[in-house]
Amino acid sequence: MIPPIPSLEDYQVSPENGFLPAEAPLSRLPDPYYESWEEIAGDLHNLITSKKIRRVVEDLPQLSTSRLRTEAEWRRAYLVLGFLVNSYVWGMEPAQERVPKCLSIPFLKVSDHLDIPPVVTYAACCLWNYKPIYPAGPIDLVENLMTHVTFTGLMDESWFYLISVAIEARGAPTIPLMLEAMKTARQGDSLTVSECLTMFAERIMDLRELLGRMTEQCTPHAFYFRIRPLLAGSKNMAEAGLPNGVLFETGTGNEEYRQYAGGSNAQSSLIQFFDIALGVQHRPTGVKKDEPPIKVDQGHAPPPPRHNFIEEMRSYMPGPHRRFLEHLASVANIRDYVEANPEDPTLTTAYDECLRALSSFRDKHLQIVSRYIVIMSQESKRRMSTVAAATSPANPVHDIPGNPLGLAKGEAAKKGLKGTGGTKLMPFLKQSRDETMEPATGAWSKTSSKFESYQARSRNITPLSTPGSTPRSSSPINGFAVRSCKVNDFEDMPTASRIGVGMAGDWENDDVGGLCHY
């Protein structure tokens, strides 16, 4: 029996908001019992800057999670505790590997309830960390959004999170749209499938333009040196001061060190939804299409397992969203349907348009990564050289203005730190982009003229709706200029200059797996 198409309400997915909550996240836990958590969360910037964060956290009372009543309250608790834990671990030097019971016990219980790892994830930073300034206004308009909690108090940090929130909101209608496409593909309705795919491609191009707005309010310098270090996880962070990961103290005597990747937009269920819906398949970094398995000679140890980072990042999603994607993967049929109907040019062209749009979205992200991470990593090297020359007993490294917190510090930064999950960032992102086009079916996919017309009109995209339904209002972005570097400027850089660096940590060229973006 063919499995049914997933029902959104079974997986806490909203037809209107997608993977964002159906109602805006709480600004504060309503029970005064949790006020001590909220007070620290609202003052993280000052506590980190004044180096008081650990003392204040250690003075917290031991609070129970028994007074959390609704899912919205559990999510708020996860957000607050996650930011407190990362501030405690990375907000002062050296990094702190032991998390005190006052944070550990409730954070582990909250994470277990939500079926999500105890670390600052994409869900904490973005999905559950926004508020519409005007409640009746659109949440896909970034100017109408504000964050609840940040580490730095900078607009740059808020903007970094809110661009992702707006992408989630604007991409939300594609979820019921593509479920409708799968349903009609089962019925052999090629026309409706084609219509759905055409609207899907247009919306992805709209998301590409929205992603390009990152540069408007988030500077590369603020991101790389101020925000990124505090988003780090505990995986592959030995040279940053966490050789074993972190230990959550519970008082049971059975505690073990844990290692988690840091917050990453690769943990976005929406982007993985796009891939699954279109039948795009990703391989471990470095593995080519149709590459035969490596043969193991007798008497030699087998090669280390290849790491599929995208699949790993699914474990950092809220449990219901992860299970939705698993269900979706079991019923996804669009690629098979298109391949079974090669004589239908309308269908194959619409499908290829979707692949080109998603590939272009990933191209835009490559530009941003190049600007915010690759270039800034070179500045970091120059800065550390200056720091080394200026260091003296009277002027230690940590007192030099601009020295990044936590991760990018002192001698470890010179060695090239491992990131929260350790991927070769640029090779991974370029491979993900290239894999997006592999299912393309028609000759049209080899050209770009029609695709470029989609880019041109995506700024004035029409409201998206499922065929036969009432269009959902949209908020197109007009009249802004996005200045960004070209992807190819960095694809040909020498290997030594292309040290892989992730969103929340530095990367070594021989690492596998890791933190990335889309």
UniProtKB/TrEMBL annotation:
GO terms for biological process: 'de novo' NAD+ biosynthetic process from L-tryptophan; L-tryptophan catabolic process to kynurenine. The keyword Oxidoreductase applies. Its EC number is 1.13.11.52. InterPro entries: Indolamine_dOase, Trp/Indoleamine_2_3_dOase-like. PROSITE patterns: IDO_1 (PS00876). Heme b binds at residue 365. Residues 462-476 have a biased composition (Low complexity). One of its GO terms (cellular component) is cytoplasm. Keywords: Dioxygenase, Heme, Iron, Metal-binding, Oxidoreductase. Residues 455-477 are annotated as: Disordered. It catalyses: L-tryptophan + O2 = N-formyl-L-kynurenine. SUPFAM superfamilies: Indolic compounds 2,3-dioxygenase-like. GO terms for molecular function: heme binding; indoleamine 2,3-dioxygenase activity; metal ion binding. Belongs to the indoleamine 2,3-dioxygenase family. Produces N-formyl-kynurenine through the oxidation of tryptophan. This is Indoleamine 2,3-dioxygenase.
